[in-house]
């Protein structure tokens, strides 16, 4: 579907309906294409890459373990910041 930019305001409902139906809507000025309104992919990038086999999504039940070194570093940093603020 092509719509002149000058007519877009009056035909916006039709353009959005066409985009929802998967059609690209080309906006034109003086008969030349200047922009495109199209459907939005509803699938996220990660889901699409997983579906294509490019990556594997982590299991939902897999928790990230807390490392003792990270906790100790966080405590040391908090302590240092507390002393600097005094």
Automatic annotation (TrEMBL):
Family per similarity comment: Belongs to the phD/YefM antitoxin family.
Name this protein carries in UniProt: Antitoxin
The species this protein was found in: Demequina sediminis
């Amino acid at each position: 579907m092509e719509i002149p930019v000058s007519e877009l305001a009056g035909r916006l409902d039709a353009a959005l309906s066409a985009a929802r139906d998967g059609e690209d809507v080309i906006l034109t000025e003086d008969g030349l294409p200047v922009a495109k309104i199209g459907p939005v992919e509803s699938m996220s990038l990660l889901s699409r890459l997983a579906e294509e086999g490019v990556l594997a999504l982590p299991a939902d039940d897999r928790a990230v373990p807390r490392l003792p070194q990270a906790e100790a570093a966080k405590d040391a940093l908090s302590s240092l910041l507390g002393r600097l603020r005094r």
